[in-house]
């Protein structure tokens, strides 16, 4: 029988944020059936599943609006039981605010949450003990708005992308200090290679993009972790926000084509693209069309299926990574704008 990319996924679940829902929805990974939703605080953003504690973490960044255009920053992250689909606890990080990116070190039971800065302090990363669900400290990143955050497999080094600062912040997670700044134009999503030697960073920042003007070339900057320097660039045709690395070494990036629009400097969104590279050879492997404004990407544990959340169309697109054919589209409920955002793949309980 031919291989089915959905085989063996019975009991697995995909969790999806609706930013304007504001909800986290759950879907059966084998059938795409909607299982239910949890209402959360306004403006949920990213998700991170902790398999050790079996908790799903969700950041809530703003009271309304989005980065650089909001009515005020929130201070909470929410822990959800994905099996019962109930909130376990809302953890208030105040006075820290604008929590967004999430990265997990399950071996050390640490959750890292990027937070925005204020007039008297730069942005940084809050460290949470996943057993007690209490903050342990903070690491400064020397930039006003660290957004996405990722750590190396050893749990020793973290990387924060900064939308408006011209560098990626490198932090020592054991000492809790900023150790380097890697020069790039304002940056978006990122991923760290399986051996920790390379970091793939989307650049430039979406706010600096113009559909009608000459601009910084778009693509993925490749950082050598040992020298903390950019050593290569994987060019893309359009602006990139999300970056994800699969277990099989495929680098997934979400491109957002924009058409000129007199009413908007950024332009008018066109259907997005999932573009696939080999992380090892840096070869471009192909692409697939997805919804409007891809914002978050994840994949199944076996690296067979890509899940692309598109905030503009409030859809999640499932793509077979062997054939780059579309498998399904999930429509995510929203109330106004924007829609689908954070994603997490949750394997069934052992």
Tell me what portion of residues adopts beta-strand conformation: over 45%
Global mean pLDDT: 93
Terminal Cα span: 27 Å
- Write down the CATH topology: Methylamine Dehydrogenase, Chain H
CATH class: Mainly Beta
- The largest beta-sheet arranges its strands as 3-2-1-32
Number of helical runs? 0
Which architecture would the CATH scheme give at its second level? 7 Propeller
User: By helix and strand content, what is the structural category?
Assistant: mainly beta
Shape: globular
Unreliable parts: none
Total domain units: 1
Task: Profile the largest sheet.
Answer: 4 strands, antiparallel
Radius of gyration of CA atoms, rounded to a whole number: 19 Å
CATH superfamily: YVTN repeat-like/Quinoprotein amine dehydrogenase
Helix content: under 10%
Strand tally is: 32
Structural account:
By secondary structure, the protein is an all-beta fold. It has a four-stranded antiparallel sheet, with no helix packed on it. The protein has a four-stranded antiparallel sheet with strand order 4-5-8-9, with no helix packed on it. A four-stranded antiparallel sheet has the order 10-11-12-13, with no helix packed on it. The protein is built from no helices and 32 strands. β8 and β9 (86-92) form a beta hairpin. The protein starts with 12 loop residues before the first strand and ends with a strand.
């Amino acid at each position: 029988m031919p291989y089915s990319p959905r085989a063996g996924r019975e009991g697995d679940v995909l969790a999806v944020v609706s930013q304007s829902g504001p909800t986290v929805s759950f879907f059966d990974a084998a059938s795409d059936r909607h299982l239910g939703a949890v209402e959360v605080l306004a403006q949920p953003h990213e998700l991170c599943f902790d398999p050790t504690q079996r908790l799903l973490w969700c950041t809530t960044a703003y009271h309304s609006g989005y980065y650089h255009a909001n009515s005020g920053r929130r201070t909470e992250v929410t822990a959800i039981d994905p099996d019962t689909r109930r909130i376990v606890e809302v953890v208030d990080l105040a006075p820290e605010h604008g929590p967004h990116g999430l990265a997990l070190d399950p071996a050390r039971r640490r959750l890292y949450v990027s937070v925005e800065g204020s007039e008297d302090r730069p942005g940084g990363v809050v460290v949470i003990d996943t057993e007690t669900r209490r903050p342990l400290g903070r690491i400064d990143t020397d930039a006003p708005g660290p957004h996405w955050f990722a750590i190396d497999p050893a749990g020793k080094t973290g990387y924060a992308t900064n939308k408006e600062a011209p560098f990626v912040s490198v932090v020592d997670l054991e000492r809790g200090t900023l150790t380097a700044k890697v020069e790039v134009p304002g940056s978006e999503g990122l991923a760290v290679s399986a051996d920790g030697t390379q970091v793939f960073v989307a650049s430039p920042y979406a706010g600096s993009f113009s559909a009608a003007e000459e601009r910084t070339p778009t693509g993925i900057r490749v950082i050598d972790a040992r020298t903390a320097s950019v050593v290569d660039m994987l060019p893309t045709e359009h602006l990139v926000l999300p970056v994800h690395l699969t277990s099989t070494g495929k680098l997934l990036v979400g491109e957002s084509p924009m058409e000129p629009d007199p009413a908007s400097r950024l332009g008018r969104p066109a259907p997005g693209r999932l573009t696939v590279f080999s992380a090892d050879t840096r070869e471009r492997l192909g692409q697939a069309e997805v919804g409007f404004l891809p914002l978050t990407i994840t994949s199944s544990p076996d690296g067979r299926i890509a899940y692309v959340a598109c905030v503009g169309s409030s859809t999640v697109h499932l793509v077979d990574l062997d054939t780059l054919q579309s498998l399904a589209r999930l429509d995510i409920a929203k109330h106004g704008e924007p829609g689908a955002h954070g994603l997490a793949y949750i394997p069934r309980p052992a």
